[in-house]
Amino acid sequence: MKYVKAKSIKENNAKKYIAVISLLLIQYGVHAQKTALLAKTLIDGTGKIISNPAVIIDSNKISSVTTKDKIPKNVTVVDLGDYTLLPGLIDLHVHPDLSVEDYQVVHLKHSSAYKALLGLRVVQDLLAAGWTTLRVAGDGDVGYANMEIRNAINEGVFTGPRIYGAAHYISVTGGGGDINFFSYEQPIIADGLIADGPDEIRKAVRNEIKYGSDWIKLLVTGAFMSAGDNPNNVHFSPEELKAAVEEAARRDIPVMAHCHSNEGIKMAVKAGVRTIEHGSFIDEEAMDLMIQHGTYLIPTLAIRIYYSEVSVNDPSLQKAIEFNRKTKDNMYKNFQLAVKKGVKFGLGTDFVGWPAAFSATEFVEYVKLGFTPMQAIMCATKVNAEILKKENEIGTVEPGKFADIIAVKGDPLKDISELQRVKFVMIGGKIVKNEK
Questions:
Q1: Could you tell me which of 357, 380, 294, 412 has the C-alpha nearest to residue 49?
Q2: Helix axes 302-309, 361-369, angle to 10 degrees
Q3: Residue 176 scores a pLDDT above 90
Q4: Is 165 left (phi over 0), alpha (psi -120 to 50) or beta?
Q5: What CA–CA distance (Å, rounded) separates 255 from 92?
Q6: CB atoms closer than 10 angstroms to residue 375
Q7: Lowest-confidence range among 13-22, 122-131, 140-149, 322-331?
Q8: Alpha carbon of 408 to those of 12, 87, 405, 415: distances in Å?
Q9: Which tens digits make up the pLDDT trace of 92-105?
């Protein structure tokens, strides 16, 4: 009897050691066998809720989604107890190399190499906050640091989120991507690519693609945050817009258009851009046009909340704060109407260096616009994956997709702010955060 008991203890200890070793292998990206990820609930990104889920992961992809009572034999179990599982979140508007305070001149302060190091830390922080995929919407760097960060992550040199996007924004002279507060004697390098006329626009698009951009970002109108221009003005001519979209299309590259002005929105939609960024002064005619063309709206609400609630001392940002104060109420009414009419919304935050957890404020604002919590989550998962044309790879927890999965302790369908408190993050089957 003593022998049997001793043997049983040894077997139990051996099983514990094997489980610990297996979990460590998963943690560091070495997959000796299949993994079963268990939790109380799964919000799978398609609109479905699954109770007592078991997500079976084989290497870096999801092989099946079942329930706890149907777990296959010989799998490593990662049990998250009463947590809620969701697909990894996708932010379609980030600037990893920008700063919350020195927005317009930060690109002049450090080398592109330094920006790559800083940006790597930033995107890793965003990953830990649950954002497993990012789209860069131009950035504060004269070089191509953000694309090199992406390349290093893709090559396995570092762990980080999936990154797509544009290295720079393309702007006209005196536009939102230019520097408009120095005298003409100062040869200051702008962080945007400055291009005027169809030929220069085409060359700028070609340069962006040459150095790795898989999206093109156009500053079609003035900006809230840059000095010396007006967000109500349209900066691109129809000929320039047409040249940009046509040139990008030759290489199967989509275009995102920064547009505040209503006229700029309509011009960009007619030109064939895939997404409208911000859309602050959109009217019903522009909404109907977006519906007709299937164009997506990314309203970037988190940045507006950040600068209205957080004290920022930089004088150059007072323009943005004042514009937001004057226009917020009417802007929200317009967005609420756009939701009711059926404009397609993706989700992006306009991240510019705030604490990573703050980005999920975007979900709180989406609920204020009239989205249900489920719809808001789907905007940042399934819909955003469709915008990226990566719907066969990411965006939902389904067989064949990459195992990009996060978890929160509570129920985000009851309290959407739970997404500001992500406790577990897995990307490509690798656990990068586990606070369980």
A1: 412
A2: 110
A3: no
A4: left
A5: 12
A6: 16
A7: 13-22
A8: 30, 11, 11, 11
A9: 999 999 876 666 67
CB 317 within 8 A of CB 350: no
Q: What is the mean pLDDT of residues 401-426?
A: 98
Instruction: Output the pLDDT for position 368.
Output: 97
> What is the percent of the chain with per-residue pLDDT over 70, rounded to a whole number?
86
pLDDT of 316 higher than 70: no
CA dihedral 139→356→387→157, nearest 10 degrees, is 70
Strand order in the sheet with 41-43: 49-51, 41-43, 84-87, 405-408, 422-427, 430-434
What string of DSSP letters covers 270-317? Answer: HHT-SEEEE-TT--HHHHHHHHHHT-EEE---HHHHHHHHS----GGG
- For strand 169-171 and strand 405-408, is the pairing parallel, antiparallel, or unpaired? unpaired
In order of 36, 84, 412, the CA distances from 52 in angstroms are 12, 10, 16
Give the whole-angstrom CA distance, residue 100 versus residue 236: 27
Question: Cα separation of 185 and 215, whole Å?
Answer: 34
Q: Is 125 helix (H, G, I), strand (E, B) or coil?
A: helix
In angstroms, the CA 106 to CA 143 distance is: 13
- DSSP result, 131-195: EEEEEEE--S-SS-HHHHHHHHHHTTSS---EEEEESSEEE-TTSTTS--SS-TTS-PPPSSEE-
H/E segment holding residue 218:
strand 216-219
* H or E element in which residue 74 lies: none
Tens of pLDDT, residue by residue over 62-101, are 999 999 999 988 899 999 999 999 999 999 999 999 876 6
